[in-house]
Amino acid sequence: LARTVAGLGQWRLLGRFLPALQNRLSRRVAVGPGDDAAVVKAAGGGFWVVTTDMMVENTHFRARWTSGEDLGHKVLAVNLSDLAAMGDVRPAFGVVALGIPPRTPVSFVDGFQRGLSRLARLHGFDIVGGDTVGAEKITASVAAVGWARRRSDCVLRSGARRGDVVMVTGTLGDAAAGLAIIDGKRPRFSAPDKRFLLKRFLRPVPKLALAKALRRAGPPSALMDSSDGLYRSAVLIAQASGVGIRLDAARLPVSGPLGSWARARGLSPAEVALTGGEDYELVLTAAPAAARRIEAQGLARAVGTVAAGRGVQIFAGGKKRGVPREHEHWSNHSQG
Amino acid sequence: LARTVAGLGQWRLLGRFLPALQNRLSRRVAVGPGDDAAVVKAAGGGFWVVTTDMMVENTHFRARWTSGEDLGHKVLAVNLSDLAAMGDVRPAFGVVALGIPPRTPVSFVDGFQRGLSRLARLHGFDIVGGDTVGAEKITASVAAVGWARRRSDCVLRSGARRGDVVMVTGTLGDAAAGLAIIDGKRPRFSAPDKRFLLKRFLRPVPKLALAKALRRAGPPSALMDSSDGLYRSAVLIAQASGVGIRLDAARLPVSGPLGSWARARGLSPAEVALTGGEDYELVLTAAPAAARRIEAQGLARAVGTVAAGRGVQIFAGGKKRGVPREHEHWSNHSQG
C-alpha cells in the first residue's frame, strides 16, 4: 500500500522534507531549513533572513468568517512573525502569490490588497511583486525577507541549555478559542470577549518590536514563535537543543476572555493555552539572569525550565501530567 | 451585482492588483511590481532580483500527468525563468511552500523534493526554507531571489524603441501542444514527437545562460519570458514601452513536432506558436545592430518590429490579420 501524507503525519512529513532540502547548500547559507526562517550571508555584509508561509481556505481559514482584509493581514503577519521569531530582524521586502476561484468577488481581492499593504507599511516592508492564479480554493502565499546586521542578532531554536528558564510573551490560547467560535463552538458569554478572541485569531500581531527588545534585554538562548501552540514550540526547542523541557501548566498566561470562554464550555483554560495554536506569541528560553532582566522589563513571563533528558513534560501544582493531545490541522507555520 | 474575479478577467485583475502594491515603496526598490521580477538595492552594493510563482492543480497541471518530480522541477523552473527574463541575473536562494491533500502518496512529496533539488543544484540555487500545509488541491509556490551586479544588468519590459527588432529564442507553441495532448487532444503521430511536446510542457528549461549571453551580445532593449505566449509578451512589452509591435506570423520559429501535431489536428502551427503559453522562451527587442549581433550568435531570431502607435498587430505574408484568441487559463507567470 502506498503511504499517504496523512498516514505519515504532519511532523514526520516535515522531518522528511526539510533534511532533503538541507543537502548541499552553499556556504553563504548560515542557517538552512528547519528554524523559523533561514539566514543567508549578504554579499556586502549582514544577513538576509528568509521565510515563507502559505494559507489555504478550509485548512487555515473559512471564507465566510475571513474578509479579504483579514486574509491579507494574516498571511503577511504570520510571515513577519517568523522574522520576529529569529530575533532582532528588520523586515525588508517580500512577494505574494494569490490563488483565487473565478467566482470570488473583486472586493475580496481589493480587501486582501488593503490588509496586506497596511501591515506592510506599518513595518516598513515592501511588497515588491505578486502572482495571481486561478484556484479552486483561496490560497495565499507570502515569502518575506528581513535583514539582520550580525549573525548574533539571530536567535535559533537550538540554543536552550539546561538550567535556562522557558518564557512566553502575551497570553496563550486566545486564537484557538477564536477558531473554535468560528467553527460553531459559541457558548453564551460576553460579546466583547468574543470579539477579542476572534480578533486574536483573525488579526495576529507579529511581535517584531518585542523580539528586538527581548534580544536586547536578555538575550534569549533560544527563540521561536508559538504558531503551533506552546507545547509544540517546546517540543521543537527541546529537539533542536537536545534538552528536556518542563512546563508548569499553572503558570501559563491566560487572558480574561479565554478564561470566560473555556469555563462556559467546561474546558480547562490551561489546556487550551498549552496546545492552542495561532497566537503568534514568542516562546523563548533564557539563562536565569537574562530571564530576570526580561521579566523585569515585563516582556515575557516564565512558564517552565530547561532540564536534563529529552522531550517535554507537563506539571501542574507539582504533579506530572500526561502529554496533551494536539490538533493535527494540517497547517504548520514553523518552518523558515 | 458583486463583480467577480472571472468577470473582471485575468489581465484587468492584475492591473488592479499591481499598481496598489506599487504605492509607497521605499527607495531601495529599484523596480517594483509589474515586470518579470522586482529589483531591490542591496545594502552592500548590487541588486536583489525577486519573483514568485504559484502552481495549482487543475489550473496549471493535472495530477495524473504530472509526477512529483515534474512539479518540483517546473515550479522552480518558472521562477528561474522570471529571473532569466530580467537579464544577467545569478540565481541565489529561495523558499518553497507546498499545499498537499492528506491522501497524496508520500512518494509524490519525495519526488517533488527531488525535482526541486536537482534543478536548484544545477543552477547553484539554495532552497533555504519550506512550508508544508494541508490543501484540497496540490499547490506549490516558490519565491526566488537572484543577484545582479549592476542595475544595467537588468533589462525591463519598458525599453523597446521604435525601429527595434522583436526576437524570440527557441521554438514556440510546443508546450501548448503538450498541454493539449494531456487534455486528450492526441492525434495519431509519432511517439517521439509526442514525448518532445509533453516534455516541453512538463519540464521547461529556464533560459538563464541564454539571457546572460543575450545581455552580452546585444544588449536587448526589452526582455521578458514567453510564459503566457508570444502574443501576450508582445502586448505587455508594447504597453510598458509605449510603442506598437508588428509580429510576422510567417517568421515564428516552429519545431518539427509542433508542425506534425498541428497538421494532424488541422491547425495552423503559426497560430499555436503565436498564442501558446508555457514555453518559457525569451522574448526581446533590440536595436538593429544589437539584433544582428544576437542573430549572428544564433541566440534568437527576428519575428517582428517595434513600430509607432500602440498595441500588437499580426501580419502574415505582408497581410494584416485579426487579433488572435488567447486562452484565459487563470494562470499567469508574468509578474515579479
Can you give a write-up of this model?
The structure is a homodimer of 336-residue chains. With 336 residues, the first copy, chain A, is an alpha+beta fold. Helices cover 36% and strands 24% of the residues of chain A. The first copy, chain A, is built from 11 helices and 13 strands. Chain A has helices at 5-8, 10-22, 68-84, 106-122, 174-182, 191-202, 208-217, 230-241, 256-265, 269-275, 288-296; strands at residues 29-31, 38-41, 47-56, 90-100, 126-134, 139-148, 165-168, 222-225, 244-248, 282-286, 301-307, 311-316, 319-321. In chain A, strands 8-10-7-11-9-12-13 form a 7-stranded mixed sheet. In chain A, β4, α4 (106-122) and β5 (126-134) form a beta-alpha-beta unit. In chain A, α5 packs across α6 and α6 packs across α9 (256-265). The two termini of chain A are 32 Å apart. In chain A, 57% of the residues are buried. Chains A and B meet through α1, α2, β3, β4 and α4 of A and α1, α2, β3, β4 and α4 of B.
What's the number of helices of chain A?
11
Hey, roughly how much beta strand do the residues of chain A contain?
15-25%
State the secondary-structure class of chain A: alpha+beta
**Which stretches of chain A are poorly predicted, pLDDT < 50 over at least 5 residues?**
329-336
Average predicted local confidence, pLDDT of chain A: 91
Annotation keywords:
11 helices, alpha+beta, six-stranded mixed β-sheet, disordered C terminus, homodimer, 336 residues
Question: What secondary-structure arrangement, pairings included, does this model have?
Answer:
Two copies of one chain form a homodimer.
Chain A: H1 5-8, H2 10-22, E1 29-31, E2 38-41, E3 47-56, H3 68-84, E4 90-100, H4 106-122, E5 126-134, E6 139-148, E7 165-168, H5 174-182, H6 191-202, H7 208-217, E8 222-225, H8 230-241, E9 244-248, H9 256-265, H10 269-275, E10 282-286, H11 288-296, E11 301-307, E12 311-316, E13 319-321
Parallel strand pairs in A: 4-5, 9-12
Antiparallel strand pairs in A: 1-2, 2-3, 3-6, 4-6, 7-10, 7-11, 8-10, 9-11, 12-13
Helix pairs in contact in A: 3-4, 3-7, 5-6, 6-9
